[in-house]
Design brief:
Length: about 525
């Protein structure tokens, strides 16, 4: 095992901050991982390093939890890569794989409820056959109210009202239908009422790793506390600067709280492995410093392309993005606002328009996912043993009837790209059907938009979170679209985080542009004191 540990450290490729995090014996440990600094690598290597020290007869497991299907698949795929690089025997690989459970919180809740959920409702043993739907579609104001408490971070109100909502959850189990956050609520209730179940998982999961900890809300944090009550052997990886989902209850203050509660148990990754452009590297560093302290010591030069109209800016975007989009080079165009401006003029076939509304059914995004799920179920009924989803793609093409939705062709193209470039290449053969079904049920197709490699992707900054491209254009940077100044300090910090996420999506170059048409003013981001702007 010492040889394995040495190989694990070698994978750090001279990154001393990664090496320090992997070898640290601090418990709990918070690792601040800026975008592109090797968070996934450090998390997985630390997990393997810890397991390599364990006795093979130890029944306990390590739990790695992230927030999305995309995140789960990425972690599993990278884990396999590292296990192959370690040149292990088949038995050794089986040992490591058997010790690690990689899930998202929704899947973790279903997994435990399928085993012990019968203690609160007999139907929960069949939870994998449940329908999970948007809260609004259930027509129950109690569910809507509880969801709002989560989104608004009103934990006391949540605790006060939870017992009133619980009977409605149990009634929904009669129909085998739950809101998406239902399994997490039921798991919380199971752990609260049956201490023996909670105690079992306290011991079974010896270590718990949390990916993207900055996206944690208080409900998820309650689950973390229940599973890992002792707080030791808890490893948190995240970055408060990458919290941009506060509207859904994410709390960047959790990261800061851990830093204050355990100041000796905090480490930071220090080397960017994504940003290759020197000016972009400095922009990322200075932006982080300014976010933390409100101060700066240096300036960074950036070029800003300024135009007189939407038409001129759109022409620049069309011409320049094509130069940087090649067979092996992806490219994306980020906008702060999904409506109006330059984005509406980028309608050539070379662009993939991902500006559709995915938070409701305004653009029939939910309807498309529902129709696709129904066709998929028909497919499984006819071909129950088919895991080659290229065959499903052909079946879908024959069965799907066009409904003239505004973005319908984009939805279909995204589905085909997801199947070909993700499911068939990165998901275990035996897991593909379940994976695709859950993506449809959770309306998660948009989270795989970087699978579209044959077109230049047009997308909002919010949707780009967690994705990356070779080159990037951040356009229409006018006041009111992407903005820094606002009425409150918290709003300022929120906008800085959004800007940070935008610039760190690129592995290569980032181009900034705006236009002065219709008396529009530049975004006040350009007033940030550490920026030295050259207008072109």
């Amino acid at each position: 095992m010492n040889q394995i540990q040495n190989k694990i450290i070698d994978f750090c490729e001279g990154d001393e901050s990664q090496k320090k995090a992997i070898q640290s014996d601090k418990n709990p440990l918070l690792v601040e991982a800026p975008a592109g600094y090797g968070k996934t690598r450090t998390l997985l290597l630390k997990c393997l390093y810890i397991i390599s020290q364990k006795n093979s007869n130890d029944y306990r497991r390590t739990l790695i939890v992230t927030y999305t299907n995309n995140g789960v698949s990425r972690l599993k795929n990278d884990l396999n890569i590292y296990l192959d690089k370690l040149e292990l025997s088949s038995n050794e690989k089986r040992f490591f794989r058997g010790k690690i459970h990689i899930v998202n919180f929704h899947s973790l809740s279903k997994k435990i409820l399928s085993k012990y959920g019968y203690l609160i409702h007999p139907n929960l043993k069949d939870i994998y056959k449940f329908d999970f739907v948007q809260t609004n579609s259930l027509g129950n104001p109690l569910f809507n109210g509880l969801e709002n408490y989560i989104k608004k971070r009103q934990e006391q109100e949540f605790d006060h009202n939870f017992n009133d909502v619980y009977p409605a959850l149990i009634k929904s189990c009669d129909q085998k239908t739950l809101p998406y956050f239902g399994p997490i609520l039921l798991l919380l209730k199971l752990f609260g009422d049956f201490k023996s179940v909670r105690s079992f998982y306290n011991h079974y999961y010896e270590n718990i790793f949390i990916d993207e900890f900055q996206d944690t809300n208080f409900l998820v944090n309650k689950i973390i506390e229940s599973i890992n009550k002792r707080k030791s052997d808890r490893y948190l990886f995240g970055d408060s600067l990458q919290t941009i989902f506060e509207f859904s209850g994410s709390n960047p203050e959790l990261v800061e709280k851990y830093c204050k509660d355990f100041p000796e148990n905090y480490l930071k990754l220090k080397k960017s492995h994504r940003l290759n452009d020197e000016s972009l590297k400095y922009l990322e560093i200075y932006l982080r410093t300014y976010y933390r302290t409100g101060k700066f010591n240096h300036e960074v030069k950036i070029d800003l392309n300024v135009f007189d109209s939407d038409f001129e800016e759109s022409k620049f975007i069309i011409d320049e993005s094509k130069k940087y989009f090649k067979v092996d080079k992806t490219c994306a165009i980020l906008v702060g606002n999904r409506t109006g401006g330059v984005a509406n003029k980028l309608n050539e076939s070379v662009f993939f328009n991902a500006l559709f509304e995915d938070g409701n059914n305004k653009d029939n995004y939910f309807s498309f996912n529902e129709a696709s799920l129904n066709i998929f179920h028909d497919f499984l009924d006819k071909y129950p043993h088919r895991n080659n989803l290229r065959f499903f793609a052909k079946y879908f093409k024959d069965k799907y009837q066009l409904k003239n939705y505004p973005y319908e062709k984009n939805y279909i193209h995204l589905l085909n790209s997801f199947i070909e470039n993700y499911l068939m290449k990165r998901v275990y053969y035996s897991e593909r059907n379940d994976f695709l079904e859950e993506v449809f049920k959770k309306n998660d197709l948009i989270k795989f938009v970087d699978c579209v490699t044959d077109k230049i992707v047009l997308i909002t900054v919010h949707k780009s979170k967690g994705l990356e491209w070779d080159n990037l254009f951040i356009i229409n940077m006018n006041k009111g679209v992407l903005n820094y100044d606002a009425s409150t300090v918290s709003k300022n910090l929120e906008n800085l985080r959004l800007f940070y996420v935008a610039i760190t999506r690129s592995r290569g170059k980032v181009f900034f542009s705006l236009n002065n048409g219709d008396n529009k003013e530049p975004s006040s981001f350009f007033d940030l004191p550490f920026l030295d702007i050259t207008k072109k």
